[in-house]
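User: Can you help me understand a structure? I only have the sequence.
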Amino acid sequence: MEKVKVKMSVADQELVSRFAKAMAHPTRIEILVFLASQDSCFFGDIHDEFSIAKSTMSQHLKELRDAGLIKGEIETPKVRYCIHKENWETAQRLFANLFDLFDGNEVIC
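Assistant: Let's start by predicting it. Here is the structure, written out as tokens:
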């Protein structure tokens, strides 16, 4: 049975690009892995797990939050972070769709 290839919409291309850009740093992947193993976590607790400056950690969290992969809720004076479950599921679907576009046949370039 032949696999039907589906093109990605421009909106989906932009969204998967935004997710990919946010995940294009090893520390951000490590942060996502850490947060995925927690229900939620405060900034200080996340920072304690990594040997980087607080300002650097803040920038990484900002990039992930701006991309929609994590949520940050202010609980004065702290910020609680967690995986944004709906957007995480969207990212999983979009990346799966992207990788499914290659049918596994040999490509001659």
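Now, to help you interpret it: The domain at 10-100 is CATH 1.10.10.10 (Arc Repressor Mutant, subunit A). The radius of gyration is 17 Å. Let me know which part you'd like to focus on.
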